[in-house]
Amino acid sequence: NVEPELHDEL
Amino acid sequence: MNAFRLAGDMTHLLSIILLLLKIRATKSCAGISLKTQELYVIVFMSRYLDLFRTYYSLYNSLMKIIFLGTSMCIVWYMRSHKVVRQTYNNDEDTFRHFFLVLPCFVLALLVHRNFTFIEILWTFSLYLESVAILPQLVLLQKSSNIDNLTGTYVFLLGAYRGLYLFNWVYRFFTENHRVRWIPWLSGLIQTAIYTDFFYYYIRSWKNREKLKLPA
Predict the structure, then answer these.
(1) Cα dihedral angle (B168, B170, B173, B177), rounded to 10 degrees?
(2) CA-to-CA distance for A5 and B39, rounded, in angstroms?
(3) Do residues B29 and B88 touch, judged by C-beta distance below 8 A?
(4) Measuring CA to CA, which residue among B106, B108, B125 is closest to residue B50?
């Protein structure tokens, strides 16, 4: 289960 | 995307626009720390490596390209523009990058979530960003004459991560996010470093006085 974590933030 | 996150990003973007405006309109980078600006280039380059690997949204990709491009543009102006570079406070901008970059990198090697190339660099960028403003704050303390644009630039830059803190609290409760110590603590430290500056900035604004930081 690879989550994008908070990588969708800047 | 929630309102805090958007407000944070817009504040960040606005701070950069303001700095570029100051440099272009006044042909001066007086009061701006090249050390801090170079640290931001390192921060963005190490954090936005995933730009070509993972696609999140057009917004996300565009903002990453803007932050990378503008940070490099600012450093170019300060180092290479024949007029602007002469206004740089070379003698007062004395902070050594090395003392921030190396400890942050070592810390990222020791404290991270996954031991992968992208994850280590992402963690490093968070640690480095949290302290990247220090050379700028040191320079402001030495400056007797801080212009409005510079003061407001630093204020907006500090406010941006503060808004992200609200964004994380909001996401924690609405999106079943787990606890994310690395970005949260880094963001908290980053915002805390500005506390003193915020106090003097707001006070000077309320009293309509010129901004001055005690040495």
Answers:
(1) -30
(2) 24
(3) yes
(4) B125
On the CB side of B215, how many CA atoms lie within 13 Å of its CA? 4
User: How many contacts does A have with B, using Cβ atoms within 8 A?
Assistant: 24
Q: How far is B46 from chain A (nearest CA, A)?
A: 12
At residue B97, φ and ψ (nearest 5 deg) are -55, -45
End-to-end CA distance of chain B: 40
Report the residue from B5, B54, B67 with minimal CB separation from A9: B5
Integer Cα distance of B55 and B61 in angstroms: 7
Q: What is the rounded distance in angstroms from the CA atom of residue B155 to the CA atom of residue B162? A: 11
Closest alpha carbon within chain A to B113 = A5
- Mutant choice from B15, B51, B58, B60 vs A, greatest count of A C-beta within 10 A: B60
Helices within B50-147 (DSSP H only): 58-80, 98-110, 117-131, 134-142
pLDDT at A2 over 50: no
Q: Mean pLDDT across the stretch A1-10?
A: 68
Per-residue model confidence as pLDDT tens digits over B142-188: 998 899 999 999 999 999 999 999 999 999 999 877 789 999 999 99
Alpha-carbon distance A3 to nearest alpha carbon in chain B (angstroms): 10
